[in-house]
TrEMBL record:
<feature type="site" description="Important for catalytic activity">
    <location>
        <position position="229"/>
    </location>
</feature>
<keyword id="KW-0464">Manganese</keyword>
<dbReference type="GO" id="GO:0008311">
    <property type="term" value="F:double-stranded DNA 3'-5' DNA exonuclease activity"/>
</dbReference>
<feature type="binding site">
    <location>
        <position position="34"/>
    </location>
    <ligand>
        <name>Mg(2+)</name>
    </ligand>
</feature>
<dbReference type="InterPro" id="IPR037493">
    <property type="entry name" value="ExoIII-like"/>
</dbReference>
<dbReference type="InterPro" id="IPR005135">
    <property type="entry name" value="Endo/exonuclease/phosphatase"/>
</dbReference>
<feature type="binding site">
    <location>
        <position position="158"/>
    </location>
    <ligand>
        <name>Mg(2+)</name>
    </ligand>
</feature>
<keyword id="KW-0378">Hydrolase</keyword>
<feature type="binding site">
    <location>
        <position position="258"/>
    </location>
    <ligand>
        <name>Mg(2+)</name>
    </ligand>
</feature>
<dbReference type="GO" id="GO:0046872">
    <property type="term" value="F:metal ion binding"/>
</dbReference>
<feature type="active site">
    <location>
        <position position="113"/>
    </location>
</feature>
<comment type="similarity">
    <text>Belongs to the DNA repair enzymes AP/ExoA family.</text>
</comment>
<feature type="domain" description="Endonuclease/exonuclease/phosphatase">
    <location>
        <begin position="4"/>
        <end position="259"/>
    </location>
</feature>
<dbReference type="GO" id="GO:0006281">
    <property type="term" value="P:DNA repair"/>
</dbReference>
<feature type="binding site">
    <location>
        <position position="156"/>
    </location>
    <ligand>
        <name>Mg(2+)</name>
    </ligand>
</feature>
<feature type="site" description="Transition state stabilizer">
    <location>
        <position position="158"/>
    </location>
</feature>
<keyword id="KW-0479">Metal-binding</keyword>
Length: 267
DNA sequence: ATGGTAGCCGCGCTA
């Protein structure tokens, strides 16, 4: 079985690319982030005609997550329990479409779009850390309930766990950028301490292996990327991972998302 | 060249 995660940066703008990639990659399950649409604008037929069931969670033009599967899609859950909400200046906090879970052929998969954080001292950064802490507490409890559960936490983590996961750590520190701070990395490591491992990195050793390249400053052309998309697997699932890869080719050419798909292959 | 792209219920906001 093959499972992929991909921040498509608009499902409608990327529809042709996604369809072509499903055929090319032959994945069984795809966790999608940043669909940037609500249900009524989601291209349901695209998945149906390619043999995938699909569940989508989107409120507006922001965020939006989905799971497509051709090996079953049950127990769909939109948002995790007590998922933190966000409101600017602390006002009118609303829950955002950043997490959807489903069971696909025995694997409990979550498609996650972790809040960006925006800047080091922004209230959005506090939201990001709160959001991660809440998710981690639940993930921990799922594993405590069933230590043999096959759980994949897949998506755009918006965190570069190690210095090698960005093109120039000095640039990030000099400019006080996000995704690399101690607080963000600690939040990520708490998942690892809870028993979830990054099953992609061992198969895609760095430096220089990235999943995201900013459109601005033409970072892809300059080979200046970040590795912020990955799959964190529970012990039982991690034991099944045979291979993993980043499909960097998908970032090339006109009409590419700023993220590349990340695939894991299970026994 | 002190920058600059891409997407959206767009003429600002998010990334």
């Amino acid at each position: 079985m093959r499972i992929a995660t991909w921040n498509v940066n608009s499902m409608r703008a990327r529809a042709d690319r996604v369809e072509a990639w499903l055929e090319k990659s032959d994945v069984d399950v795809l966790a999608i982030q940043e669909t940037k649409c609500k249900d009524e604008n989601f291209p349901w037929e695209l998945f149906e005609r390619n043999g995938y069931e699909v569940a989508h969670f989107g409120f507006s033009q922001w965020n939006g997550v989905a799971i497509a599967s051709r090996v079953g899609l049950t127990e769909v859950e939109r948002a995790f329990p007590d998922q933190p909400a966000f409101g600017k200046n602390g006002k009118d906090p609303v829950e955002e479409a950043r997490a959807i879970g489903a069971t696909c052929n025995g694997v409990r998969l979550w498609s996650l779009y972790v809040p960006n954080g925006r800047s080091r001292h922004d209230e959005h950064m506090e939201y990001k850390l709160r959001w991660l802490r809440q998710l981690r507490e639940h993930a921990q409890s799922w594993l405590a309930e069933d230590p043999h559960a096959q759980i994949a936490l897949a998506g755009d983590w918006n965190i570069a766990p190690e210095d090698d996961d960005v093109w120039d750590i000095d640039f990030f520190e000099r400019n006080q950028l996000t995704h690399v701070t101690a607080a963000e990395r600690e939040a990520f490591q708490e998942f690892v301490q809870a028993g979830f491992t990054d099953v992609v990195r061992p198969h895609t050793p760095g430096p220089g292996v990235y999943t995201f390249w900013e459109y601005t400053s033409l970072r892809f052309q300059k080979r200046q990327g970040m590795r912020i998309d990955c799959h964190l697997a529970s012990p039982a699932l991690a034991a099944r991972v045979r291979h993993a890869y980043v499909d960097k080719d998908e970032r090339r050419g006109k009409g590419a998302s700023d993220h590349a798909p990340v695939v894991i292959e299970l026994s």
